[in-house]
Every structure is written in C-alpha cells, then in structure tokens.
Design goal:
Layout lengths: L6 H4 L8 E2 L11 H4 L12 E13 L4 E12 L3 E7 L6 E6 L2 E2 L5 E2 L4 E10 L4 E10 L12 E6 L5 E6 L21 E8 L10 E7 L5 E8 L9 E2 L3 E8 L5 E8 L4 H8 L2 H11 L10 E5 L4 E2 L5 E3 L12 H8 L7 E3 L6 H19 L1 H12 L16 H5 L12 H14 L1 H13 L12 E3 L1 H12 L4 H7 L7 E7 L2 E7 L10 E5 L5 E4 L5 E5 L6 E3 L10 H14 L1
Parallel strand pairs: 2-12, 17-18, 18-20, 21-22
Antiparallel strand pairs: 1-10, 2-3, 3-9, 4-8, 5-6, 5-9, 7-8, 10-11, 11-15, 12-14, 13-14, 16-17, 19-20, 23-24, 24-27, 25-26, 25-28
Helix pairs in contact: 5-6, 6-7, 6-9, 9-10, 10-11
Length: 573
C-alpha cells in the first residue's frame, strides 16, 4: 500500500513519536531513473531472468551507511553481452565477479542508477550467469515514509536505533541491486543482515539462524521464496517478539510473529490477538495463506505501514477503532494475497492490489458484525472517489504514473473506486461467482491447497477473462465503463403518470445494461429494472415515494458527493 495517494488514509498517522536521527531527509538525491519504478522495460534488460539473490548487508546506524554483497543468478532469455542491473548510484560498486572471476575496474559503469556490466564472454540464450557485486554507501533517506521511499533512521524512546526501509514507489534499487520492475521477482532470496550488538533484524521469509560475531554484532539469516521486489525490507531495532501457531483450516500450521518495541507488551498482545481471526477470515473467503511454510510476520516500524512479504510493516500506534479491528494491520495483511501472491506485472493493473486490499476491510466488517458495518465502511470509502482519470490506461506505466494525479494517474481511486467496483461486481454476479473469480485470480486455479500453487502475475485482461469464464457471460461492458473511463455512469430518472423511466448515461455512450433496484414506498417491495439496452421502465403509482438503488449496490454518479468534494476543495484553497 503506497499511502501517498490514499487521501482517506493520509489523515491517519501514527501516535508513536519516534525521535528522528540526524540524517537529512530526501538526501542523498536520486536520479530520475532511480526514482522511477516499472514502466516500459529496456529491451536489453528484458533479456534477463533473475533466478536467485543472496544479499549480505550490514547496517551502520552511527554512520547511517550500509555495505553489501549481492550475488545475483540470471538466466539469459536471449543472447547477452552485458548485464543491466538497477542500483542507486549513491551506493557505488567497488568490485564485481562474474561466475567467480573478478572484473577489472572499468568493466562496469553506473551513470544514472542503472549498472552496466560488460561480461567477459557472451552468454547464449538459455545460459546461466552469476554476478557478485560488492557495494555500499549512504542510502537515500525517506522524507515521509511510506508516502515516499528510502531508509528511515529513527530512535526509540530510550535512544536506540530504530531503522526501516520502504521502496514500493521508487523500487528495490534504493538499497540492493535488482531488476526494478514488478516482473523482476527472483525465485528465492536469501538475506544476511548484520546489525550492532543488542539489535534484531526481522525480515522476509524463514529465519535460518542468527550468527553472533566476536564483537557482539549479529547476522540474521533469512530465506524467502518468490519475493515481491519492493516487499524486501530491512527492519532493525531492539525488538521483542510474540509468536504462536495457527492451525489452518487447510491442515497446515502457520507460524505467527509480531516484532514490537520494548515497553509495549500489553498493546502488542492486543494486536497479536487479531492475527488468528484475520487469518481465518482470509482463508475462508479467499483461500490458503500463500506463505504458510514461511510465516505470518508483522513488525513495528517508525512509518505507517507497507505490505512487506511475510514481515508487514505496522506503525498505526495501536489505535482503537469503532470497527473493532486495526484497519492498517488488516489492509497490509490483505496484500499477502493481493500483491505478494497475486502480483500485477504492470503498475497499470495495480487496482488488483489496492482495490482488493481496500475492499477487504468492509468485507471483514461484514464478516464480524454484519451488513450495517459493511454499509458504513463502504459509505466512508465512497466519498474518497475522485474520478480524475481512468483506473486503467491500457499502457505500461510506472508507479508514479499510476499513483500521482498530477502525472495523469488515477491516484487513490485504485483504492476506493477499485473497492466500490468490486462491491458492485459482487452484487451483480453473486457471492459464489465473485469469490470463485477472486480465488482463480489469486492462485491461478479454483482449488488451491498448500503446496499446489506459487506466487503468480496477473493482469486486468486476465481478470476480465476469468469473470466471463466463471459466469458464462460477457461483462466487458462493466469493465469498459468502470476501468477505462474516468467519469462514473449517471442514472437519469424521469416520471410520467404511472411510469418511472430510468436510463444510464455513460462516457462515450458506452453500453451499460446494469440492472437497477427500485423500492416502492418506505416499506414497499423492491423491484428490479433489467435495463436491457441501458434503459428501462417500471410501473409506479403516480405520487408514490420511490428509492433508487436502496441498498447502494451500484457505483454511480452522486451529485451530493460531488458538491461535498467541491466545497472541501474550495475550503482547502
């Protein structure tokens, strides 16, 4: 969840007040290439398939620097004469080995944040090559994580280091050499994180062991399968740990861990108590927890949150909520399914992450308390829909082109509008079909069980195809209006005598045969107007009170909400 564009969530900031370290925010500056994540792939870089990564990285809180050795194993999808690897040039490379042979200085260059490595010999298509890079320096410091990216050098209340990274917006190259694109996931990543004495470094995947060095420093060894590149994270502090086991309805046992700061045991236990019920909700509605053979992990951070695979960042300050659960924890955890298991290969399709991620909170409200809670939470999201740009452009886009409205992107609409679109789709096709569609999209199959699936890439085009396959109907008209147009469909009503006429008005006059419910009288029956061809008529006694779409099932234009938004904008100006 890149919160920079989620206006509704931006109002919710952590009650924790970490003491900031001396690092200057936004420094050292990064190039435009490093700032960018995703977008059209360089044809030469597209020849690379990243198989595995072994990253040994040491963090020096006193100097606010890092030093690392990254071993990247590639398969050549086409003949190679050089490697193109993304890495912030503020982290200069001091040595490179190719398949164990050191390269001479001058065999690599990094002018703008992409490392060009000339290979000693060409690699044929299908060939393997391993690059070992030694690098280090001063990583870019986040200005206001997670609204922007980089490292956060903070202090706990008693002055000890509290360090975290976020990289969804700018990408993995902010602190390790990678292929900075959604499709750059390796099959496996091993991390060896060395920290000063007394500190701990929870990270992604499974903990393989902790090595204690002669001077008291410790190296934390983790291994993660199929990690989302921006979901790799460093988290360093004098953490304490609560852990336990969850007996899944699918027969496996999942280790649950929460890493928190000293002095917060009571609050930490309260949050940890939410882990098992939330797991049960997701496993019941969607399917097996995707990383059950690793862990369900959460770590307290000096920033609000992020969906770091199996070690989700949490910084919501243990806020109480009327819904009875912590929305931030629940939202980030939803990304284990929608983001880390199902990953959009193109930022243009990130509504699959954030639309579903945002929809999971109202659905959890429904699961826990029923329809009234669900309706209240959906209503809260509805006021945040801005309709400035289509959710999907049909182009290969960068993260900024999606999240930044000033760059023409849909911004926060991939959250709120995405969630409301799913709400409408669920009612249109029914719960059975909707959750089958969701399961197929997440796992690539209708019958997921632990061990019979792995993380996968999805797209809007695939999602549309799955909906049609599951329902046996063509719902292209639905997605054409909600995803490909900025403006919402407008329902125009008119009455003449005993006839109520309804007609959909859509951008570009696109077809939109969305059926509409009409309640006749406050306690009267609810009738369905089929709207075949985009319009329909219903017999209603003249003067009888009517309510259009009484259960608010349809995402459509609202003059009232537009007026409220206009007033807020005027007041802000």
């Amino acid at each position: 969840m890149h919160l920079r564009s989620f206006a509704a969530l931006a109002l919710l900031t952590t009650s924790l007040t970490p003491q900031l370290a001396a690092a200057e925010k936004g420094k050292p500056e990064v190039t435009a290439l490093t700032q960018r994540s995703g977008g059209p792939v360089d044809p030469e870089q597209a020849k690379l398939q990243l198989d595995t990564v072994d990253l040994a990285i040491e963090v020096f809180p006193d100097k606010e620097t890092i030093a690392g050795t990254a071993t990247l194993a590639f398969t050549a999808k086409a003949p190679l004469i050089r490697l193109l690897i993304d890495l912030d040039r503020n982290l200069p490379v001091s040595a490179i080995e190719i398949d164990g042979t050191p390269l001479k200085p001058g065999a690599w260059t990094n002018p703008e944040g992409r490392l060009f490595v000339t290979l000693p010999a060409p690699i044929p298509a299908g060939g393997k090559v391993t690059a070992k890079l030694t690098y280090g320096g001063t990583p870019h410091v986040a200005i206001r994580a997670p609204w922007d990216d980089g490292i956060v050098w903070a202090k706990t209340k008693d002055g000890q280091p509290w360090i975290a990274t976020t990289s969804e917006g700018s990408g993995c190259d902010l602190f390790w050499p990678c292929l900075d694109m959604p499709s750059g996931e390796p099959e496996r990543m091993d991390l060896h994180i060395t920290v000063p004495k007394g500190l701990k470094a929870p990270s992604n995947g499974v903990l393989k062991g902790v090595d204690t060095l002669p001077d008291g420093r410790t190296t934390w060894n983790w291994s993660a399968k199929h990690p989302n590149t921006y979901a790799i994270a460093l988290n360093i502090a004098p953490y304490e740990l609560i852990e336990g086991d969850y007996k899944s309805r699918f027969g496996n046992t999942i280790r649950m861990q929460y890493w928190y700061l000293p002095g917060e045991e009571a609050q930490a236990k309260g949050l940890f108590a939410e882990f098992a019920p939330t797991l049960d909700f997701f496993e019941t509605l969607i399917g097996p927890y995707p990383f059950g053979d690793e862990k369900m992990g959460v770590v307290e951070t000096p920033h609000l949150g992020m969906e770091h695979q199996t070690i989700n960042a949490y910084g919501n300050g243990y806020k109480k909520a009327a819904e009875g659960f912590d929305w931030l924890f629940q939202h980030e955890f939803s990304h284990e399914w929608f983001g880390n298991q199902l990953t959009a290969g193109n930022w243009d399709d990130y509504w699959l992450h954030e639309g579903y991620g945002a929809y999971m909170q109202p659905l959890y409200g429904l699961w826990r308390e029923g329809q009234a809670r669900y309706a209240a939470m959906m209503a809260a999201q509805r006021t945040g829909i801005r309709n400035k740009a289509p959710i999907v452009s049909g182009q290969i886009r960068t993260e900024e082109q999606v999240y930044d409205e000033d760059k023409g992107g849909p911004g926060g609409d991939i959250y709120n509008k995405g969630a409301w679109m799913l709400h409408t789709l669920r009612d249109l096709i029914g719960d059975k079909a909707f959750f089958e569609v969701t399961t197929r999209a997440v796992y690539g199959r209708p019958d997921p069980r632990p061990g019979n699936f792995k993380p996968r890439f999805g797209s809007t085009a695939e999602y549309r195809r799955i909906v049609n396959e599951v329902t046996g109907k063509d719902y292209g008209w639905f997605f054409d209006v909600y995803l490909s147009e900025a403006a919402l469909p407008d329902l125009v009503e008119s009455r003449s005598g005993d006839a109520l006429t309804l007609a959909w008005k859509t951008p570009g006059d696109r077809p939109f045969p969305m059926p509409v419910e009409v309640q006749i009288g406050l306690d009267g029956p609810v009738k369905v107007v089929p709207m075949t061809g985009g319009s329909g008529t219903l017999a209603v006694p003249a003067g009888e009170h009517i309510i259009i779409d009484p259960a608010a099932k349809i995402l459509r234009r609202s003059l009232a909400i537009e007026a409220v938004q206009a007033q807020r904008q005027a007041e802000a100006q």
